Amino acid sequence: MGVIIFLAIVVIIILLASIRVVTEYERGVIFRLGRLIGAKGPGLFFLIPIVDRMVKVSLRTMNFDVQPQEVITKDNVPVKVNAVVYFRVIDPAKSVVEVENYRFATLQIAQTTLRGVVGEAELDELLSEREKLNARLQTIIDEQTDPWGIKVSTVEIKEIEIPDSMKRAMARQAEVER
């Protein structure tokens, strides 16, 4: 009798351990013995304990700040530029299988792309054509993250910090023009 109760408790524990719930904004990427089965969700799923493993991936739009990057513009002006990137996972299986950490990888791509694009622009272009630069950044980052199942929807340059000497020179020039 005690053995039956013990076995019943073990079966109940195994059944409870095999139940997974995936919410509307998530997908569960399921692996069976290390092999990709696919992305499932939303809903209730039963996994085979020890054999199946599930990684939850959020499909909501995420964002992160690109920390200020020190860059020298095309016309040799040192500037500090930071940005914000909005992106979401469109292919959960790729985001788990193709790259170890899609958030960190997207951040690294965004940092290097921001430095590259700002380095190719002149200061005047940085200050006056921000929308054009934002669109260019978004296109480049989106193309590079596409193989990972990531869609970059928006990139916004938040702040451009120029040296104080340049600020004073620009203020003097503006005053002369008035």
From TrEMBL:
Keyword annotations from UniProtKB, A to Z? Membrane, Transmembrane, Transmembrane helix
Q: Which Gene3D superfamilies has this protein been placed in?
A: Band 7 domain
Please list the residue ranges annotated as the Band domain.
Answer: 17-174
Specify the protein name. Answer: Slipin family protein
Instruction: Show the InterPro entries listed in the entry.
Output: Band-7_stomatin-like, Band_7, Band_7/SPFH_dom_sf, Stomatin_HflK_fam
Q: Name one GO cellular component term.
A: side of membrane
Q: Which PANTHER family match?
A: AT06885P-RELATED (PTHR10264:SF19), BAND 7 PROTEIN-RELATED (PTHR10264)
Transmembrane parts of this sequence: 6-23
Taxonomic classification, please? Bacteria, Candidatus Aerophobota
Has keyword Isomerase?
A: no
Q: Which family does it belong to?
A: Belongs to the band 7/mec-2 family.
> Which SUPFAM superfamilies does the record cross-reference, listed alphabetically?
Band 7/SPFH domain (SSF117892)
Can the keyword Lipoprotein be found in this entry's annotation? no
